[in-house]
């Protein structure tokens, strides 16, 4: 078995772990925000990046978006699209952290609840950015290899597993008009 064939066998399992980790991260981020929506709004406001008119909307809607995206990832529906949305969110969050740091703000990012202004010198921007890099790696992996085990996507439009003799039937597709193999 070649390296690419071995990867084809393990890739859906790795994608499953990544998908579930991303869903867990989203739920862990959303639950504390739901528990204190006004604090979520304060956390968004602390960045001083958005116009005040939309800050309450963004702070209120963010946990809803995180839960919906988490549910899609949990069940494995629209996985590539969900990964791209995740990456866009991480780009926005990363931009916010860089903005706050560059402008000398001392804030807690509020990513997992809380947030807002904190005592001078207590903001840990390098750790927040390193965390974002990890989250971006997860999202990029899943955007490139969205096919995973136990997913709605696999049930609705299974992908072929070329060159793997003992391929998982859950992940195989039936030949179509574009398939030249007979």
Strand order of the largest sheet: 1-2
Task: Spell out the helices and strands N to C.
Answer: HHHHEEHH
Total helix count? 6
Number of domains: 1
* Overall pLDDT level: 88
According to DSSP, the number of beta strands is: 2
Give the helix proportion (percent range): 55-70%
Q: What percent strand?
A: under 5%
The parts where pLDDT drops under 50 for at least 5 residues are 163-182
Class computed from helices, strands and strand pairing: mainly alpha
Query: What is the rounded distance between the termini?
Result: 22 Å
Sum up the overall morphology in one term.
elongated
What is the gyration radius calculated from CA atoms? 20 Å
Largest sheet at a glance? 2 strands, antiparallel
Characterization of the model:
By secondary structure, this protein is mainly alpha-helical. It has one domain (9-154). 62% of the residues lie in helices and 2% in strands. It has helices at 3-35, 37-46, 55-75, 79-102, 125-144, 152-156; strands at residues 107-108, 116-117. The chain has a two-stranded antiparallel sheet. A hairpin with a 7-residue loop joins strand 1 and strand 2 (116-117). Helix 1 (3-35) packs across helix 5 and helix 4 (79-102) runs antiparallel to helix 5.
Descriptive key words:
two-stranded antiparallel sheet; mainly alpha; 62% helix; 2 strands; 182 residues
């Amino acid at each position: 078995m070649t390296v690419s064939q071995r990867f084809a066998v393990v890739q859906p399992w790795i994608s499953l772990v990544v998908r579930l980790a991303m869903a867990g991260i989203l739920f862990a981020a959303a639950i504390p925000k739901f528990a204190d929506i006004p604090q979520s709004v304060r956390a968004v406001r602390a960045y001083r990046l958005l116009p005040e008119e939309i800050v309450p909307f963004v702070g209120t809607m963010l946990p809803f978006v995180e839960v919906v995206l988490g549910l899609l990832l949990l069940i494995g529906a629209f996985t590539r699209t969900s990964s791209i949305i995740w990456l866009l969110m991480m780009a926005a969050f990363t931009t916010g952290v860089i903005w706050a740091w560059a402008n000398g703000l001392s804030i807690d990012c509020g990513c997992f609840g809380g947030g807002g202004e904190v005592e001078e010198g207590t903001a840990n921007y390098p750790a927040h950015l390193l965390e974002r890099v990890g989250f971006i790696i997860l999202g990029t992996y899943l955007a490139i290899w969205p096919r995973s085990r136990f997913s709605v996507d696999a049930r609705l439009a299974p992908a072929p597993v070329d060159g793997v003799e003992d391929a998982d039937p859950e992940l195989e597709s039936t030949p179509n008009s574009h398939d030249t193999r007979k």
